[in-house]
Design brief:
alpha/beta, 130 residues, Nucleotidyltransferase, domain 5, 5 strands, 4 helices
Length: 130
């Protein structure tokens, strides 16, 4: 998984991360256990290894009875997201993200968005500077 992420991010100075979140607390929020049915998505831009922009968006597919994963995947593609973070990714959404070269990072339940972003920075973004 890490090799794929480095390939996806290679050459980028800006990395856009989408974190499946429970609410609207930004960096202080907790990661959602699920991706497609998450309440909100916290978008974090990392530029030159610094957090520069944070926005919290409602999941546009939350109220859909079926097909939430593909709709959310398209939203991330439209937002130019390179990395998606959640507690769990289902098989359908995993395939869609891989097809669109969006790397997946799975984190433990209860992890804060700030901890997840630090993980992405430490494990992936800094590797690109070497």
């Amino acid at each position: 998984m890490h090799e794929n992420l480095v390939q996806v991010l290679e050459g980028l100075k800006k990395v856009r991360v989408a974190v499946a979140t429970k609410g609207k607390k930004g960096l202080e929020d907790e990661i959602s256990e699920v991706f497609g049915r998450t309440n909100t998505i916290t978008i974090v831009d990392i530029i030159d290894d610094e957090i520069r922009n944070i926005q919290v968006l409602q999941n546009p597919a939350l109220s859909y009875r079926y097909g939430a994963g593909p709709i959310l995947a398209k939203t991330l593609v439209d937002l130019n997201v390179e990395v998606a973070v959640a507690g769990e990714f289902g098989p359908s959404i995993s395939t869609l993200l891989e097809d669109h070269k969006i790397a997946k990072v799975t984190m433990k339940k209860g992890t804060s968005v700030s901890e997840a972003i630090k993980f992405v920075q430490a494990k992936f973004v800094k590797e690109l500077r070497c």
